[in-house]
Amino acid sequence: MNRIETEYWKPHPEKPGYVVYDKGRPAQEVFAELRSRLEAAGYLPDEYFLLDRDWEDGRLWPRDGDIFCAVDYGGSEGIYLDIYLKYMDENNKSHTTRFATGKTLGESETDLDRMYLIASAVTKAFHSDGVHARYVQVGGHDNDHNAEPGAIIHLNRQEVKTAARSLLETRESLKAQGKPTEVQEQLLHRITGSVSAHTKALNDFKITDAKDRALLAIRDGGAEDLADALPELPKSDYGELLAHAAARPGRTGAEMMRLLLNEDAAMQGAEYLQACKNAVDLCDGARVFLLLNKLTERVQEPGDTFHSELVTYALTYDEKRGNIYNLARDIISCRTAEQLRFVHPHFTESAIFGGRRRLAEALIDKRVGLDTEPGRLFLAAARQKDVSLAERLIKNGADIDGQYFAALRRCVEDGDLQSAMFLLKCGADFEGFCDYITPSAGTVLPENVRAFMRDLESFWENGMEDAEQAGYADGEDEYENDEDDCDMEQD
Questions:
Q1: Same domain, 271 and 137
Q2: I need a labelling partner for 391 at 20 to 30 A (CA). Which of 78, 157, 355, 453 fits?
């Protein structure tokens, strides 16, 4: 199996046929490909396997960066795999930082041996260029840590052929019965590296189902094998295959996507949306926009909620895996307000409160929440003391007095005089609000509300001249800068 590439190269400007270093590959993308390889072989640590936060958000792999692994028992429980990245900075200073961490639940000697095998697989993924000795765990304890431990053995070349053929035959039988085959596939990946390549080399054995061959080709990274299987498949299967290809990291996954998109096949909206979400999971903007550009060609009726669902997924992804607000913002920027009308107003409010200025501006410009929850958005801008965002809300048609003076009512309920003053300064109708809040005959406002309204009326009658002294400014400088953009270039 080819090693994981960590750098991009480009043609030499003066020497035809030669290449020069271009830039490092995004570390998140490298980690995604490593995780995919380990998962395919059943080698993911069973508790967690996580990228260090320092390498998230589009940070590039350093030039000539190299990895090494450390395996040891933890201070309390479990066995840990620490993957470190060593590199030299621009000043020729050496750095060693943690790149990723894995942890196993068990603490037996077999668990320790297995973690060392995982470390070996990681090392080979970055350093090996050809066929190497492979290992297979026979049996195992799954999630029962009180069961008998598994055995780890080395297979010679003949034993590999024998074991692989037996597993392939078992897998075909289980497929025919509609039963799960994940365990057989994991073992096959560990033994052969590529199930597709191995079966292709067998003269007297062939996987009969073309769709099965296509899915294996995607998992194995065999673009040619996928192309060979496509003519035997109905076009109705292409959408499902596209979703799987979009989830595969690296250049091969992108190549498979283009292969499927170039075929004249009508796809279902749900399958196509899943492909877009899988591209978001990889934080791969180039894939997302390739899919969006091909949407009208490949999906006849994507549905009214297609774009809103995709943007919602991109925004909520941050809460699950890491910060990709810039990718979500870029998707938002190239969609219409009509396409995004089902995005929840919470995201606009959260962007304002969270200091995500460029994201907030993009959502406001697409009117997300402006018709349904204008009061919440004006209140958020008021509490951030951000005049420019309040003006942007008004410019895009948000009604500052909408929903029966919702923003001013909330200020009164919370006793937030400064935010109420801010709203008046932005154009809220004080007289209309007074008429609205005036109680019916025979009732009296609570004393705290009457005191609040007296102070607000004094501010209004004095021409709101002391707004700046109350702490209101443009608000531009109070927002943090957005994170660096994800690397949008396609490899």
A1: no
A2: 453
